[in-house]
Amino acid sequence: MFAALAALSLFASPAVAQKLDMGTTPPSPDPRVGLRAGTMKTYDKDTTRRTLVTKAAEASWNLRLLSNTPPKAPFVGVTHSDIAFTGKYAIQGNYDGYQVFDISNPRSPVLYDEYVCRGSQSDVSVYKKLIFVSGEATSGRLDCGMQGITDSISKERFRGIRIFDVTNLKKPRYIASVQTCRGSHTHTVVEDPNDKENVYVYISGSAGVRPAEEVAGCSALDPKEDPNSELFKIEVIKVPLAHPEQARVVTKPGILSELAVAPRNSVRAAQDSTDRAAQAAAALARGLPARGGRGGRGGPQVPRGPVQCHDITAYPAIGYAGGACGGYGLLLDIRDVANPKRIGAAADSNMSFWHSATFNNDGTKVLFSDEWGGGSAPRCRSTDHYEWGSDALFTIADGKMTFQSYYKMPAAQTSFENCVAHNGSLVPIPGRDVMVQAWYQGGISVFDWTDAAHPKEIAFHDRGPIDTATAGASAGSWSVYWYNGVMVSSEIGRGLDIFELQPSGFISKNELDAAKTVRFEYLNVQGQQKIVWPPSFSLSRAYLDQLERDKGQSAEKIASARAGLSKAEKLSGKARKDALAALSKELHGDAQAATDAPRAHKLAYSVGDLAK
């Protein structure tokens, strides 16, 4: 796909963002190619920290940027990471802690609170009155001090999960530290539908195993030598909701046991070697541990499958989790939440570092992203293969995954832009599988994967590189998630972005209005919640728009249904109820002859729900 863009100049510098066609024809040439860079520099003057910004050029299609909130001290120049949501607040992780934004007015977010506590990468989750924060850096301290730790072994070091009580969000109380043997690169808060007294946290640690002198019981020996070895396992923390300060590791499921070495193609393997060296150097420069070796600390360096996971997405409502575990994508049975079991595994020679997973709403598909290069490398150049650093899309049937296709943000980026698949979420368009996803300095891409064999981009936003003078300068969208009607993106170097998806030939206003009726009290994207659309006239009209767009029913029947809905909407009380009930019955009858009978019946059921 990038071949068609190769002839374009990668360094053209449009002065302003282009105003683009809002329809179904992608703009050509692609305006994301060659956007002007925007750097961010900080300096001190009279003890007041200021920020100078050379604004990068931007390009959008079918998306509107509502606001950009630049970072402020003490988080300027420090990597912003993942996001969680509760009520009207977005909680943005940062390698030096986290920030809380009031996003009730998405055009003007307000910084509500901040908490400084170094630990990297500070992935955040929220559950009721608790905030969970991952810590992995060797410089992280139990007391959240910023002075770091120089000793190789220290009882002051923290690597695991921090738990905060935010009954008063303005005054968080640090109530627990759960130390883990690999630290916590990421974590997943998992609700057990059968256990309302506790919540569980799956820990994915990417670093080597800590010495037993620092955390008792940690072992990096081969499991044949030590059955209590940390290798090939994740850690599960149980958090009693009545006493969260008593949280502790309760199980260590061996979900990675007995996996073969993941396949590699020769071209990618050579590049992997170069990437690992660059990634290790970058990690050390930021005071972070290099990602764990195959044997862990002191373990045997022998060819084997992955010994740890990078990230896990749990979907308790369907009993599945997707484990993105280095060289493999796993399908897990989590009906027994504390004891997840591997029931499927996929490997692919085109995939390098399986990073994260997303299920579609009905659990019949799963998407795994490939963070090749650890997020620090350019993988969207015109010379890069389409499969490199992309998404792999699978269908799920009878607990088995079947590969369908790859998806990759399709605009060639420069060698100055770290660009690879990263975190995203479903957009709640009824009856379709639509996702918004971060691509670091490749920007954000919205795509439809209802047909998993033929995913298609339908909207995007991108900025120019943050810096073309410093090799490997990191920026771009770490994660972008749909939350209660808007898309919120954590920009690694440039703050917090909030977007609004625009109606287009791909998504109608009725579909967007129906999506906006879905409201979450809180959201951790790695703990997927079932999307349920409340009855609304916009929902029924959304199904009509889809039938018309895909020619799923005759134009005459669609026009008649629209007229019937409009007539009923003008009524009230019993008259409206009777009209909708009659229309629902009529629509079920019409659905029998529809080309897309399942969707026509969805329409009829949605009208029946309105009548109730």
Primary descriptors:
612 residues; five-stranded antiparallel β-sheet; 6 helices; 32 strands; 15% helix; globular
Question: In order across it, which strands form the biggest sheet?
Answer: 3-28-27-26-25
What would you call the quaternary organization?
single chain
The helix content, as a percent range, equals 10-25%
Rounded to the nearest angstrom, the radius of gyration is 24 Å
Q: What share of residues are in beta strands?
A: 25-35%
- What is the global morphology? globular
The chain-level mean pLDDT equals 90
SS field, number of helical segments:
6
Major beta sheet summary: 5 strands, antiparallel
Distance between the termini: 49 Å
In total, the number of strands is 32
Helix/strand structural class: alpha+beta
Segments where pLDDT lies below 50 for 5+ residues? 1-21, 42-49, 290-300
Can you give a write-up of this model?
It is a single chain. With 612 residues, the protein is α+β, with helices and mostly antiparallel strands. Among the domains are: 1-67 and 348-534, no CATH class; 537-611. 15% of the residues lie in helices and 32% in strands. It has six helices and 32 strands. The protein has helices at residues 266-285, 509-515, 537-549, 555-569, 573-591, 597-611, and strands spanning 40-45, 48-53, 58-61, 63-69, 80-86, 89-94, 97-102, 110-116, 121-127, 130-135, 160-165, 173-179, 186-192, 195-204, 235-240, 248-251, 311-315, 320-325, 328-333, 341-346, 354-359, 365-370, 391-397, 400-407, 424-427, 434-438, 444-448, 456-463, 477-483, 486-491, 495-501, 522-523. The chain has a five-stranded antiparallel beta sheet with strand order 3-28-27-26-25, with no helix packed on it. α5 (573-591) runs antiparallel to α6 (597-611). Residues 1-21, 42-49 and 290-300 have low confidence and may be disordered.
